[in-house]
Design goal:
The chain is mostly beta strands. It is about 10% helix and about 35% strand.
Length: about 400
């Protein structure tokens, strides 16, 4: 008959073996389960403008969260085992429900094609990785604390990800895998929102909504320039928010002045786009701004829930969207950005999604590639809902 000590030893050994077996099987399930990233798609193709006009934009689909990643059938026997043990240890549906966008603010696309989105509602950064077939969520701003209100984001020339957190009053530098590296700007910034980087010079532009100016930093995070002050003149601002840098130009959303101001890489004023008014193409509460490879400029008109398209000569071309939650509609959209394939992304904030549009470049013309599809003389009331938000 075995002693109590021997029996206790055998039980411990068996528990250890069972524990290692669970770990191995769980790892098998995780490693053998492959996923594909798919966009949430409307039931029918949506294009702008509608036929018989020549289509210039098409809705690609939406990103909403982990539901965009579908398990590949026949991933291997370990997949079902992995799902079983995920449920067993509490990694199932309850945790997955929060792995969706809540209040997306802005985003960028890196050289690997990953769509990286800031979400102030989740206090996180979402990473949609199509090549790897997975989604990651970054929460850590530094080793000591997490993100609170991440808004602006861009990729540094060495691949680091820089995030402007409005509540933390600083810019966070992460490596390409989301690991905190450093932070800067706390002594300079009141409420940083937009962030854009000139990849050639390494200059980092940050819009400071609280101080009505732009702060410019070098790649080391040292403040080297301040652009603007509160006012309505050229180069002055009233609550600047989202910004972007494209084709050697810095686009700044001067929100309460209802315009976009454009600067060169050294901060010299070049021109403004849009003005306050009651007609389609006028601005009331602009937010996100982006440009494509041919110089077309995209402005989020958040008050009326439109994405407005202008050519490189500042002429209004056409609207996309309107108020609602259906395909091709927006509800309080925020940021906008573009990628190397001339896809235009919109953070459709209160619809909890990112909308993706493809610029079709159908004309073959050099320059904007668009014709003037809609004159800026149509009252907004005739074309959109005008609920006050």
């Amino acid at each position: 008959m075995k002693s109590f000590t021997e029996t206790k030893y055998i039980l411990k050994k068996r528990l250890l073996i069972y524990g290692l077996l669970v770990i191995v099987l769980f790892a098998m399930g995780c490693s053998e389960t492959r996923h594909l990233m798919r966009y949430d798609m409307p039931e029918q193709d949506l294009i702008w403008p509608v036929l018989p006009d020549k289509p210039r934009y098409q809705l690609v689909g939406y990103l909403t969260g982990e539901d965009n990643f579908q398990e590949v059938e026949g991933s291997g026997p370990g997949a079902s085992i992995g799902r079983f043990f995920k449920a067993l240890v509490g990694l199932g549906s309850e945790n997955e429900r929060v792995r969706t966008l809540l209040r997306p603010q802005s985003g960028t696309v890196d050289d690997q094609g990953r769509v990286i989105v800031t979400d102030a509602g989740r206090q996180s950064v979402f990473v949609f990785d199509e090549k790897q077939g997975k989604m990651s969520i970054w929460t850590g701003a530094t080793e000591e604390f997490n993100f609170v209100s991440p808004v602006g984001i861009d990729i540094a020339k060495n691949g680091d990800v820089l995030v402007a957190d409005a509540e933390l009053r600083r810019v966070i530098r992460l490596d390409s895998q989301g690991n905190p590296k450093s932070e800067f700007g706390f002594d300079d910034l009141e409420r940083p929102t937009g962030l854009a980087i000139d990849k050639i010079s390494g200059r980092i532009f940050v819009s400071d909504t609280g101080e009505n100016n732009l702060k410019v930093y070098d790649d080391n995070g040292t403040l080297i320039q301040v652009i603007g002050q509160v006012g309505i003149k050229k180069g002055e601002f009233n609550a600047p928010t989202h910004i972007s840098f494209k084709n050697g130009k810095l686009y700044v959303t001067d929100t309460f002045n209802a315009r976009i101001q454009v600067f060169d890489s050294k901060g010299i004023f070049l021109q403004s786009i849009g003005s306050r008014g009651l007609y389609m193409g006028n601005l009331v509460r602009p937010k996100g701004v982006a440009a494509d490879s041919q110089g077309n400029v995209y402005i989020i008109e958040s008050f009326h829930d439109y994405l407005l398209v202008y050519d490189q000569d500042r002429r209004f071309l056409m609207p996309i969207g309107g108020t609602g939650s259906g395909a091709g509609q927006f509800y309080l959209p925020a940021g906008a950005w573009s990628d190397q394939e001339d896809r235009i992304y919109v953070a459709d904030m209160y619809n909890r999604r990112v909308a993706i549009f493809q610029y079709l470049q159908g004309s073959g013309r050099k320059g904007s590639g668009l014709t003037r599809l809609q004159e800026a003389n149509t009252p907004i009331e005739a074309s959109a809902q005008t609920d006050v938000k």
